[in-house]
Design goal:
The longest helix has 15 residues, at 106-120. It contains five helices and seven strands, in the order E-H-H-H-E-E-E-H-E-H-E-E. By secondary structure, the chain is an alpha+beta fold. It has helices at 16-27, 37-47, 52-55, 106-120, 135-140; strands spanning 6-10, 60-65, 68-76, 89-97, 125-130, 144-154, 157-167. Bound molecules: coenzyme A. Coenzyme A binds next to helix 1, strand 4, helix 4 and helix 5.
């Protein structure tokens, strides 16, 4: 597919329902990616819903193909979970491509937007807490694996993730 058909725009709070549907469809594919079933199902309600704070952050984006929402993702200076801010460090947040639109370069376009914006605001390092199946996507974009971490999605609900990072630009 030509990337000319993909338009990226900033998300707003009005995208909550549409992006929650998109993220739920995308994260449903994680059921085939080696997670412990009980932990994944416990995390799914929170993990697969669009995050209102991200939607109103101004640094979360929607990719549309011919006007149809096909992917989303963004970045923040605040570390997911803790909110910690470290000078020069930015974090990738909540990337998802709808299963109908995978491997068309949509997440890569979103990622390029995030990397460029974060760099323009002074970040020199981009970090990502990748899903187990997302690792190859980030690796293809120049991220290196730091190691496996445990992410707490809600009190007591913990899933493994891969901590990754790449220098900016
Ligand atoms: C990870 C995810 C966002 C990638 O989205 P995508 O739009 O399909 O990614 P792209 O088409 O931009 O992929 C760019 C490159 O990354 C690599 N890549 C992406 N998905 C891959 C996969 N499943 N296996 C191997 N490499 C992959 C490839 O090099 C690809 O280029 P190519 O298709 O020309 O070979 C998508 O698979 C997804 O939503 N997964 C479920 C949710 C999730 O894990 N999100 C990540 C949260 S951290």
């Amino acid at each position: 597919m030509s990337t000319d058909r993909i338009r990226i725009r900033t998300a707003t709070s009005e995208d909550l329902d549409t992006l929650s549907e998109l993220i739920a469809a995308s994260y449903a594919t994680l059921r085939e990616s080696g997670y412990e079933t009980q932990a994944l199902e416990a995390a799914m309600p929170k993990m697969s819903r669009a995050n209102p704070d991200l939607l109103s952050s101004g640094t979360y984006f929607v990719a549309e193909v011919d006007g149809v929402p096909a992917g989303c993702g963004g970045w923040t200076t605040a570390k997911p979970g803790t909110g910690e801010i470290v000078d020069g460090v930015a974090h990738i947040r909540h990337f998802a491509t709808h299963p109908r639109f995978v491997r068309m370069g949509i997440a890569r376009l979103l990622l390029d937007r995030c990397l460029a914006e974060a760099h323009a605001t002074g970040a020199r390092l981009m970090k990502s807490q990748s899903t187990l199946s997302g690792e190859r996507f980030y690796a293809a974009a120049g991220f290196r694996r730091i190691g496996e971490v445990e992410v707490e999605f809600a009190p007591g609900i913990i899933l493994p993730a891969i901590e990754m990072e790449r220098a900016l630009p």
